[in-house]
## 1
Amino acid sequence: MKKIYVLVAVVMASFVTFASTTSTTVSFENIVKEGIAVTISVNSGGEVVKGALIKIVAERMVIGAGTTDEGGNVTINIASYGSQPVTIEVYHSLYKSQKLNNIKLETGKTYSFSLIGKGETATEITEKSDVRVVKTEEQTEKEKKEADEAIARKEEAIKRQEELRKETEEIASKGEEISKETEEAKKRAEEAKEKAEEIKNNSSSLSDDKKKQIEDDIRVRAEEAKKREEEAAKRAKTLEGAGSELEKVKGAEKDAKKEAGKAQKEQEKEREEAEKAAKEKEKDAKEEKDAAEKDAKEKEKDAKEEEKKEKAEEDAKKEEEKKVKKAEKEAKEAEKEAKEAEKGIKEAEKEAKKEAANQAKLDKLDDDQKKIEKDRKKLNDKQKKLDKKIKKGKGLDKLAGDQKKLDEASSKLDETQSKLDNKRKKLLKKMK
């Protein structure tokens, strides 16, 4: 702690005599004098104030002075003090002055002052600036992080675009394959239809005209048989049917002022330098933040552009998928149609086999029919001959026996014809 020793002569009866020697003689009445030491402590807002000028004044005369040290304290020794009321004054260029009036000093006592700053101290400036710089740096880091994220998003979007392009190409390729398959299925269906039609056309099924002809023939033969039966009956009747001293006191006051002034100038310089440094730091931080922000915006813009392209690729993929789904649907329909047509071929082949079999049977019946017709011709010829003989009227008894045999042969042939025609009718019902 800095100590200042001062010899003080106080004239309380308005009379003071100064000798020309090294000692000072002071005349006063009824004042008991003694040396005392007091401590002045100065702070501001909880922080110590160094370099503050302290004056202890009695009757407008400075009886003690000093400057606060690094801890914000100063001990002032007054060699002769008569317990008169004094005023303690505190001055500092960076703070508002303060006075403690009409107090009696007590040795060993500490008098404390809390000053109010005229502005921010160098420490406060630095601390606040540091807070702002930290905040700016945090924002810068945030912008950098966002820029990195934007870059990552951009790269991911580019990567995704490539993946989507490949997927789209694969889908398009698949679509082409499906289209080819669809065309092939349609072609197969068409060919199958044509083949089925050809099979139908080439099968041995009966035409309407031929079927009608057969039915007509059956009817005619039935009528002829009936007619023959009637004729036989007639003949039979004829022949029994599908984050100290005055100068010393003045000298002490002068020294204190000088020291306080020097300390305060240093503090003012320190404050200015702190402000300058703070501004530079804040400027640098701001520039870095602005640069980071600009970079982040550019990266964000790039990322959005790539994401936009990615979306376009996704849309293209969806469109291609839509086309493929449509193609797949068409392919399924075409495949279904082809299967149905191929099924038609099988059915047509099956039907053709049936028709061929039935036709073979019908052809066999035609062969049988020819035999019957041959036999019928023979009988008819015999009947004609017999009819001629009967007309002659000779050997009627024998002719009646011949007629009976001929009628029995004709009736048996009619039964064979009827069975053959019944088989033919059944085949006609099966045939289309």
Note: The first helix runs from residue 122 to 202.
## 2
Amino acid sequence: MSNYEFRSAHDPNTWQRILKAQIFDEAEEERGEYALQNCYVGTVANDKVDVYYHKEGTSRLLVTRFIGRVEADGTGCKVVGRLTQSKETLFFLNFTIAVMTVASVVMLNSGFRTQVTAPLLFLIIALFMRFHKPKHEIGMVIKLLTDTCTANPADFPDRPPKVKPDKKKRKKDKKKKGAVAEGSVRDAANWKSSDHDD
């Protein structure tokens, strides 16, 4: 797909800060925090941008992303990139298209004309998923990037750093809960047996 270019009066660091304030960080946030929301998700780091519009309850594997970079441009900046799918998704779809194409051709040449339906169906689905670009997703991502270029930096303060939970403390809490539950089961068993004895 053709490249997109956005220009802003903000310097690269300010532009990235404003964008970060509007998205869930894919590298830091747990998926459960935004899985049931319509929101923006992505990563912004080292002048690189990877952002997409997440629709409630959908998979992130097939979404159309904006992948690009932020460059200084005079006193402001410019953002150059393209709308595409993730590298992993593109690899999988291209691989599927190649395998299903070869399988279909081999089966047709070998006389298995009735059995060629399955690989052809998979080929059509993979081609559709590879080249289909949802207009709504694209429109939402372009709106986000355009709004970021003209946003007032004062409206987007820095997010406080996320405190990661202590794994050791979590393990201790689990052990405590397990001990309490085990004790409760033991007490219940004792109560039942004593009740039965009476």
Note: The chain is about 45% helix and 20% strand.
## 3
Amino acid sequence: MNIYEIGSNGYWTGASRSIQTSGGSPMGWTRITPPALSVGEYALWIDGWNITTDVPVVIREVAEVNVQVELQQTINIAIVSNASRLIQTQRIMAQMEIRGQV
């Protein structure tokens, strides 16, 4: 038995594969055969296959987590850099106090 992949945008991806008749279909796949399509037509899943001429839109989610991780890494680098400068300044001030320059 063949199954057919439904993309995250609801359109048939064009992918199909064979499974055992007794096996279930994984999420995002259906056993219902897409309709025959002409040039410029697409199969869209809305409670079953529908033919549309609307071009599929691929939605790419921005990984907000990656942006947050990069921001945190940048902040951490700035903190370490500033901490290093502070420690260096404190050492210089301590040396100046020891020498009586302050």
Note: The longest helix spans residues 64-98.
